[in-house]
């Protein structure tokens, strides 16, 4: 019997007004697995990721992280929203990396990494400092610890953002098009850090247009279109020998 | 053209010629006209019925010094109250809670919608409505004793200032990118902690110049408290000229003190702005 999946998404529905961004998505991510979500913009892949991190709230269905239902609690036949504190506690199990980096501009690279452990987890700054420096070293930026985000390139900022997310010791890392805002020559550094992270056994959900990365690193690739998963499986199948016509059309358009 | 060496092809060599200074006739004419005008105004004041000796004598009398001291104390305390109220009300205004939003909007509407001098008079005359004020079961007192000119001025100026400051702070909060809220939430911060640690420090950069503006306005608005007998500098000047009839001289004394205070505040504001621009300064902003 296979172990319980770390992330279980069942019939997830999300609407923005009349627009249905997710139309009943179901998906499992096992611990240690790397899942790449691909698809055209507007297909719902970013919305799905944001729902996992509760930056957006589902209108139907549910998401379980490590067996725990996210955002709501079932009681006496009704769904009750969790308090902000409970949501924050659930969020702490996931790390999020944004397309636009979203580093805190008034804090140094090191300050960005230590902010969460010190302010949210209440750990002593002295204890956190060495760990944060080690994280910055692992993303190749130990020498930029004292620099502000405005002094870093896009690729360096994104690597600091990855270190910031890892500092919270998350069970799951979410990447929302982490290289889409980067100049082409800076993409490789960020992807290399993500590959390294995948090798350490981190569970990752990655929304990406980098099919080369998906082919090399992903255990599962899911192709989304119009708010639904059209096809998913190992990259050799979805990217190499797609069965669905829509997947073939998408791959033909982007390659 | 004859002294200029010639290049191949018959073109003159212009590389060593100095640039002639343009005459700027317009500047000289404008400067002459303005200096002439200022001279006339200056002469009018010298020949006018102003006893400059009185200005010099009353500039540093104890009553005036105490007055400018009271002006500064009131301005600083009222601004502190205004900033605290402004930040709280701005956060309430942007909260998802509709009750808090409505209360914040009502507060701003009420205290921006009535003249400051009217609010000062209302606070000062509170005893006419509520002869006894207090917290039931804990403490109470006669309103005429409690509502001193100082307290009435502080409440009137501070609460009015809070209404304006809340709009300035709200603009600052809105100026921070939505991605900053999301990044703060994504590392597990609560809404209030995200505001305090991430959003407000960034909003400060946007908020400081208009807050400096508001504070300079408030320093001068304290003069309105003279109508409720708060002994600030204009009130002191008035009391002196009621006795000696040197109206213009004493108004000039008060004016010079306001100018001096505002002149000191401006560089202080620049120092504060530089501190909150850290992280952004190197972009040359």
Can you give keywords for this protein?
heterodimer; A: 255 residues; alpha/beta; 6-stranded mixed sheet; 4-stranded antiparallel sheet; 9 helices; 36% helix; globular; B: 285 residues; mainly alpha; MetI-like fold; two-stranded antiparallel sheet; 2 strands; flat
Strand order of the largest sheet of chain A: 8-9-10-3-11-12
Low-confidence stretches of chain A: none
Instruction: State the oligomer.
Output: heterodimer
Q: Which sheet architecture does the biggest sheet of chain A show?
A: 6 strands, mixed
Query: Rg of chain B to the nearest angstrom?
Result: 28 Å
- Helices and strands of chain B, in order, run as HHHHHEEHHHHHH
Please report the distance between the alpha carbons of the first and last residues of chain B: 48 Å
Mean pLDDT of chain A: 94
Description:
The complex is a heterodimer of chains A (255) and B (285). With 255 residues, chain A is an alpha/beta fold. Chain A has nine helices and twelve strands. Chain A has helices at 45-52, 84-91, 109-119, 125-138, 154-166, 184-199, 211-217, 235-238, 245-254, and strands spanning 7-16, 19-29, 34-38, 60-65, 68-69, 72-75, 78-81, 94-97, 172-176, 203-207, 220-225, 228-233. In chain A, the strands form three sheets. Chain A has a six-stranded mixed β-sheet, sandwiched between helices. Chain A has a four-stranded antiparallel β-sheet with strand order 2-1-4-5, with helices on one face. In chain A, strand 11 and strand 12 form a beta hairpin. The radius of gyration of chain A is 18 Å and the shape is globular. The N and C termini of chain A lie far apart (38 Å). The relative contact order of chain A is 0.17. With 285 residues, chain B is mainly alpha-helical. Chain B has one domain (57-133, 140-279): Orthogonal Bundle (MetI-like fold). Chain B has helices at residues 25-47, 52-58, 62-93, 98-113, 116-124, 143-146, 149-175, 178-186, 191-221, 233-244, 247-276; strands at 132-135, 139-142. In chain B, strands 1-2 form a two-stranded antiparallel ribbon. In chain B, helix 3 runs antiparallel to helix 4, helix 3 crosses helix 7 and helix 3 (62-93) packs antiparallel against helix 10 (233-244). The radius of gyration of chain B is 28 Å and the shape is flat. The mean pLDDT of chain B is 91. Chain A binds chain B through residues 53, 55, 84-85, 88-89, 91-92, 94-96, 98, 100, 102-107, 115-116, 119-121, 148-151, 164-165, 168, and chain B through 177, 179-180, 182-191, 193, 197-198, 201-202, 276, 278-280, 282-283.
């Amino acid at each position: 019997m296979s172990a319980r999946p770390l992330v279980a998404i069942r019939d997830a529905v999300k609407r923005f007004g009349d627009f249905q961004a997710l139309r009943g998505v179901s998906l499992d991510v096992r611990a240690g697995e790397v899942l790449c979500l691909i698809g055209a913009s507007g297909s719902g892949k970013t919305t799905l990721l944001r729902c996992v991190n509760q930056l957006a709230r589902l209108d139907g269905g549910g998401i379980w992280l490590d067996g725990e239902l996210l955002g709501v609690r079932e009681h006496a036949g009704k769904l009750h929203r969790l308090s902000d504190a409970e949501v924050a506690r659930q969020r702490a199990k996931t790390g999020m990396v944004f397309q636009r980096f979203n580093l805190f501009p008034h804090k140094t690279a090191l300050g960005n990494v230590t902010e969460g452990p010190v302010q949210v987890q209440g750990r002593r700054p002295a204890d956190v400092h060495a760990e944060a420096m080690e994280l910055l070293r692992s993303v190749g930026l130990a020498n930029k610890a004292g620099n502000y985000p405005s002094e870093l390139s896009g690729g360096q900022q994104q690597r600091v953002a990855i270190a910031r997310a890892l500092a919270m010791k998350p069970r799951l890392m979410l990447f929302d098009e982490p290289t889409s805002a980067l100049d082409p020559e800076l993409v490789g550094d960020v992807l290399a850090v993500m590959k390294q992270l995948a090798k350490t056994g981190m569970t990752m959900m990655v929304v990406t247009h980098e099919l080369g990365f998906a082919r090399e690193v992903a255990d599962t690739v899911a192709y989304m279109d119009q708010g639904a998963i059209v096809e998913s499986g190992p990259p050799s199948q979805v990217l190499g020998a797609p069965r669905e016509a829509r997947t073939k059309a998408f791959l033909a358009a982007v390659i | 053209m004859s002294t200029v060496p010639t290049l191949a092809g018959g073109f003159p060599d212009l590389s060593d010629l100095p640039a002639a200074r343009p005459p700027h006739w317009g500047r000289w004419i404008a400067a002459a006209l303005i200096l002439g005008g200022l001279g006339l105004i200056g002469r009018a004041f010298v020949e006018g019925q102003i006893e400059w000796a009185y200005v010099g004598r009353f500039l540093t009398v104890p009553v005036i010094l105490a007055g400018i001291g009271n002006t500064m104390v009131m301005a600083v305390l009222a601004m502190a109250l205004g900033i605290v109220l402004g930040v709280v009300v701005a956060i309430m205004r942007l909260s998802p809670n509709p009750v808090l939003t409505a209360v914040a909007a009502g507060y701003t509407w009420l205290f921006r919608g009535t003249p400051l001098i009217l609010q000062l008079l209302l606070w000062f005359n509170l005893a006419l409505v509520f002869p006894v004020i207090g917290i039931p079961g804990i403490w109470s007192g006669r309103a005429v004793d409690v509502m001193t000119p100082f307290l009435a001025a502080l409440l009137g100026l501070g609460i009015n200032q809070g209404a304006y400051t809340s709009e300035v702070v709200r603009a600052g909060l809105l100026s921070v990118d939505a991605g900053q809220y999301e990044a703060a939430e994504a590392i597990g911060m609560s809404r209030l902690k995200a505001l305090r640690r991430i959003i407000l420090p960034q909003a400060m950069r946007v908020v400081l110049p208009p807050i400096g503006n508001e504070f300079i306005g408030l320093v001068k608005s304290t003069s309105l408290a003279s109508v409720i007998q708060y002994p600030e500098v204009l009130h002191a000047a008035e009391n002196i000229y009621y006795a000696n009839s040197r109206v213009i001289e004493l108004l000039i004394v008060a004016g010079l003190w306001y100018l001096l205070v505002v002149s000191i505040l401006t560089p202080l504001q620049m120092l504060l702005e530089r501190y909150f621009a850290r992280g952004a300064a190197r972009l040359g902003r």
